[in-house]
Amino acid sequence: MFQKINTIAVATLLFAMIFSSCSDYQKVLKSSDYEWKYQKAKEYYDEEDYIRAINLFEELLTIYKGTSKAEDLYYYYAYCHYHQLDYILAGHYFRSFFQTFPFSKNAEEAEYLSAFCYYKDSPSFSLDQTYTLKAIEEMQLFINKHPESERVKEANGIIDKLRFKLEKKSYENASLYYHIGDYKAAITALKNSLKEFPDTEYREEIMFLTLKSSFLLADKSVISKKKDRYENAKKEFATFKNAYPESKKMKDAAKFEEKIMQYLAGENI
Q1: Would you give the DSSP letter of residue 129?
Q2: What is the 3-state secondary structure (H, E, C) of 22-72?
Q3: What DSSP letter does each residue of 168-203 carry, written as one string?
């Protein structure tokens, strides 16, 4: 019985606190004392109550446009969107901030965060990479503009992560042609992937799949195209062996070479 009464008392107290809080917020919203409203907006922000803060900052931006308070208001407003994980709007307002207040002490930070928001919106490698490409572009622009910034190291690290995502997408897209048996398209896509990302960590696998696709394309070709395609497969084996003579895949690669040489020597395989 005592526990039940205690629970009711706590619930009643919480309801009263919530109601009081809502009532106070309504007073702030309706107030024409903009200085007080400005202070309350910052209080809500410091308390991480970004939904209430953002509504007040939005109104105050109009009221204080062109005044000394506008800079701080815009800064807080952009961060409110950032803390709510709305990176599209946050990035937009951080860009607007450093473009509007280029000499602000917070301009460099806002410029970096504008690029960082593109990074945060960069999706899984399997999805469209528009934001990934934009994030790389914006991070590189930041580095070029602020080469002495303490944020350059982090920016370079982010660029590396984003480029790896593009490498992985390129590799996965190219290897997909191999897995569905379209060996001609696989060869083209794999070579393009390697051309675009010559230092990729998938280099060995890409070169091996190129060899394997070349062999399978030749093997499944009509008689009139077999010889030329086996010649191409022979070249791919030489390229792979030269690049990775100690590869764990060399045993399988050697089997392809053996069959290639048998055919080119006129043997029936």
Answers
A1: -
A2: HHHHHHHHHCCCHHHHHHHHHHHHHCCCHHHHHHHHHHHHHHCCCCCCHHH
A3: HHHHHHHHHHHHTT-HHHHHHHHHHHHHH-TT-TTH
The pLDDT tens digits for 46-83 are 999 999 999 999 999 999 998 989 999 999 999 999 99
Burial of residue 3 (CB within 10 Å: 0-12, 13-18, 19+) is exposed
Nearest residue to 201 (alpha-carbon basis) of 244, 171, 233, 222: 171
Q: What is the pLDDT of residues 5-28, one digit of tens each?
A: 455 444 444 443 444 445 788 887
Q: How many CA atoms lie within 13 A of 195 on its CB side?
A: 8
**Residue 85 corresponds to which tokens in the numbers above?**
């994980």
Contact 51, 77 (CB under 8 A): no
Give me 115's structure tokens.
């690029």
* pTM for this model (two decimals): 0.78
**Unique residue bearing structure tokens 């008392």:** 9
